[in-house]
Amino acid sequence: MKRDFEKDKKDMVVVEGSYAVASAVKSCRPNVISAYPITPQTHIVEDLSQFMADGEIPNCEYIMVESEFSALSALVGSSAAGARSYSATTSQGLELMHEVLFNVSGMRLPVVMTVANRAVSAPINIWNDQQDSISQRDTGWIQLYAEDTQEVSDMTAQAFKIAEDPDVLLPVMTCMDGFILSHVYEPVVLLDDDLVAEYLPPFEPEFKLDPKNPKTFGAFADPNSYTEFRFLQQQAMNKALKTIEDAADEFYDLFGRYYGGLIDTYETDDADIVLMAMGSIVGTIKDVIDTLRAKGVKVGLLKVRSFRPFPVEAIHNVIKDAKVVVALDKNISIGLNEGALFTETKASLYNTKIDVPVIGFMIGHGGRDIPVETIENIIDEAKKVIDSGISVESQFTDLKEELL
Amino acid sequence: MKSLLAPGHRGCAGCCDAMAAKFTLMAAGEDCIVVSPTGCLEVMTTPYPESSWEIPWIHSLFENNAAVASGIEAALKAKGEMGNTKIIAMGGDGATLDIGMRSVSGAFERGHDFTFVCIDNEAYMNTGVQRSGATPFAASTTTSPSGTVSFGNIRPKKNMPAIIAAHGSPYIATTSIGYPKDMIRKVKTAVDVEGPTYVHAHSPCTTGWGFDTSKTVEVAKMAVETCLWPLYEMEDGEITKVKKIKNPKPVEDYLKMQRRFKHLFTKEGGDDFIKQIQALADKNIEKFGLQ
Which of A270, B54, B123, B136 is most buried, most CB within 10 Å of its CB? Predict the structure, then answer.
């Protein structure tokens, strides 16, 4: 993370994470917002509603839909008609959008949506994990995960820039841990409208629904052409790898804040143990690393910012010289007993010459707290792998035996 | 009036969808944007890289065309590009009465300035003639087949115009592709009225209903002439105009034209069902003052 805190200090305000996101959306000058309220995303849509009520978002229509399904469907129409389009959701709402998610990316519509990550039913649970967005990983959306409220605010502007890049034209999900980031009040520098205007040009798509120049959107594709649409989506994801990094670099040049492009690293240069994680947990991990480094333990952090596209090369460059890699996941693929970050990192190493053991831990489901001790215990397990090899590849941790 | 649906579409001979789309575009003119759900119309008019639409057209999913139309209207308003552009969502009966119901209801409740045209061919035709909420009483479909103990679909049609009326739509009309001038006039009225308006077009399907491809218009007219499909207009929830039927024809004349009602004439006990269908027509005569 590169950031001039001294310079930022004078502009800092203490606001709720949701407000920071809503304010960032406002600065990005959206034309259409469409959303349905759902905890813990609610405060974002409430703040945007208040901005609308106070006339603070000019040239914008806010559609109060009857469901998340229609929220994203409305943005299919608005984005295709050339409007910068935004939504926010979480958990069950995101699941309800599932069919539309494929449609938005398949039609190459650069919609931006904040996901306030939350567990999914059943059992019903409103607290944070990342099962909701991870479950949507194959829908063709770019997925970015934020560490703190400042990052998710700044990431909002980056997301529009990435999505609307003519080489990319893919929707972007900016993921923030529900409650942990959405409801926390902390010092933030809100996006400056003039700087955002400089950073983010108006959305002017090459093709749109226009009676003066009629086009057909969302046509029917038979086996003769369908594959090529998928190939082109994948190609756009490949191009996004660079666009995401460029968007972060350009943001740093203008705003002086940087959180990594596809990934970020902390103390990894000489690390024997590299922990991998996404979202707010990386803050806790950094604290643990500070403590252990003081004791001479060579441990570092690889923060994955972009889960889709999955930055294989960037990850390999960081972990290739480690003695053990530990992926921490707030999600699970039930039936494989693995979290997504673990599965994908491990899979990406097969057929390479990088020979590093990878283990996984599934933590923090349904809002279960992840204390420093849990991270320390996980690092102890990693040390054992260095000494005696892998005994368990992937596991839950801190289970309450009395409930099983 | 210029036809803005190119003649190169791949609809069946005698296709009601093609007629409904053509009449709708004749009424709306060039300055319109059409949203279609998944269904026959989408498949037969847009096999990539071809398109029959000479106006901007979008298809998203089966159940969301009213929501997509909402977004288009919002986009044009936000960007100051609305002008006189007409936004039309067209949907089959499945997309309108069944799977798309919530999306349609939401768009009408929110009061978007758009027109919804329901092309009602009374079943899911694109996937092989399965029952929908618009399938009439005693019709045999592949999921409500007549059989040794069944006389086909056991429920009457869902009354979609009444449901839309309950949303406070300023203009609602029923029409039939058997009456092109009527349909064009009503769609034109609907697109010119500000707010969410609705046109429900009865549209016989040659393959799904089982009649000769040359008879689409004839069958459509017979539904109206037997009073099984009354043509009326509603303004602000009140019926304002009704097409009178001076000498209603017996429902048998309509039913016997179609394979989907064949069992009523061949199975023992079919007479009773025909009587029940006649009672539905008689009720329409009374309710809508058709005579």
Answer: B123
Residues 6 or more apart whose CB falls under 8 angstroms from that of A148 comprise A181, A186, A280, A283
pLDDT in tens, B99-140: 999 999 999 999 999 999 999 999 999 889 999 999 999 999
Q: What Cα–Cα distance (Å) separates residue B188 from each residue in B24, B32, B74, B183, B200?
A: 8, 12, 22, 8, 13
- A134-191 per-position pLDDT tens digit: 999 999 999 999 999 999 999 999 999 999 999 999 999 999 999 999 999 999 999 9
DSSP assignment of A200-252 equals S-----SS---TTS--EES-B--TTTHHHHHHHHHHHHHHHHHHHHHHHHHHH
SS3 for B63? coil
Report the C-alpha gap between A73 and B75 in whole angstroms: 13
Which chain B residues are closer than 8 Å to A209 by Cβ? Answer: 33, 56, 58, 72
How many angstroms separate the most distant Cα atoms in chain B?
A: 64
At B175 the three-state DSSP class reads strand
Asked whether the beta carbons of B208 and B121 are under 8 A apart, the reply is yes
- What pLDDT score does B224 carry? 98
Are B26 and B183 in contact, with CB atoms under 8 Å apart? Answer: no
Helix A281-294 and helix A372-388: axis angle, to 10°?
Answer: 60
- Whether the pLDDT of residue A1 is over 80: the answer is no
Tokens of B218: 């004839």
Integer Cα distance of B29 and A211 in angstroms: 10
Pairing of strands A273-277, A324-329: parallel
Closest CA to A73 of B92, B101, B103: B103
Q: State residue A6's pLDDT score.
A: 85
* Pairwise CA distance, residues B164 & B232, whole Å: 14
The CA distance from B145 to the nearest CA of chain A, in Å, is 30
Q: Distances from the Cα of B18 to the Cαs of A208, B42, B49, in angstroms?
A: 25, 11, 19
Query: With contacts defined as CB-CB under 8 Å, which chain B residues touch A77?
Result: 35, 58, 60, 67-75
Q: What is the ipTM of this complex?
A: 0.97
Hey, what are B224's tokens?
């109206």
Q: For tokens 């841990």, what's the residue? A: A177
Nearest residue of chain B to residue A82 (CA atoms): B75
Question: pTM of this prediction?
Answer: 0.97
Cβ contact A110:A142 at 8 Å? no
Contact of B43 with chain A, judged by CB distance below 8 Å, is answered with: yes
Segment B84-97 shows an average pLDDT of 97
The residue type of A192 is: D
- Tell me the C-alpha distance between B186 and B88, whole Å: 13
Instruction: Taking residues B243-248, report their average pLDDT.
Output: 97
Q: Give helix A312-319 / helix A340-349 axis angle, nearest 10°.
A: 80
